[in-house]
Amino acid sequence: MQALPIDGVALSRQIRADVGRRAAALTAQGRKPGLAVILVGDDPASAVYVRNKVKACEEHGLHSVLERYPATLPEAELLARVAALNADPAVHGILVQMPLPRHIDPQQVIEAIATHKDVDGFSVHSAGALMTGLPGLRPATPFGCMKLIESTGVNLKGKHAVVIGRSNTVGKPMALLLLQAHATVTVCHSATPDLALHTRQADVVVAAVGRRNTLTAEMVKPGAIVIDVGMNRNEAGKLCGDVDFAGVSEVAGWITPVPGGVGPMTITMLLVNTLQAAEEAARTTA
Ligand code: GUN
Fold first, then answer.
1. How many distinct structural domains can be found in the chain?
2. Is 120 a pocket residue for ligand 1 (Cβ < 6 Å)?
3. 118 lines ligand 1 (CB under 6 A)
4. Residues 93 and 177 in one domain
5. Do strands 232-233 and 239-240 pair parallel, antiparallel, or not at all (unpaired)?
6. Residue of 118, 120, 242, 244 with catalytic role
7. Which of 85, 226, 237, 265 is least crowded, fewest Cβ atoms below 10 Å from its Cβ?
8. What is the CATH number of the domain that holds 176?
């Protein structure tokens, strides 16, 4: 069997076209959706991510504000900036790029963001809403993975999904989203003794560990959907995921490539969240 690729670039393009239409409709009502991004310090990778987020906003008719501060910014000043953005009616989403310098407590900053502007979905409130099935903003990467799975047309009800990884940003919310879609969910992690025992029974595998070749062909059930969240480099410096793409493609039914799978969907779902926040603001404020 040769797996069908799940094209994250094409799906992103479709979703972003819809974002553009919805943004234009809000702008026509004088309610242009706005995202504020805060970058503290000069980590080059973070600077690239942040630039891409701002660029995506501009390309799809959203207003964006980028605030850059030196790594020495006191925590109190960052919290004051978040408070000002919470009060700014032109800003519907606030994203503080992680990681933050060590003297700043990231959870303190995340919790300072108004719940209805928490477009990362990282706050305790957003996590609790996801856990209890209440409406709210969902973390962009697992939200994007769900869209990629949905694009296969496979109904998750009654399927067995295995998530590899238990981070607060990907693994845990991914498991909850799959559960909400009526899958039976197993979460595996670094202390799981026999990973293959679980993955071999899975109709869906989401690999989010950050180690290449974590999932190989003999660990996959024929026909399974394989979603690769990993972003690693091989010896030659080439970008690769957590999945042995060539080997697993011989067994799986569907597979996301790296690059071109989950990656483009993360920024796309950030745009979707910002738009959702702006639409909600338009509904609830005069
Ligand atoms: N750093 C790497 N990915 C992310 C993300 O999705 N959100 C934030 N805020 N920081 C990040």
1. 2
2. yes
3. no
4. no
5. antiparallel
6. 120
7. 237
8. 3.40.50.720
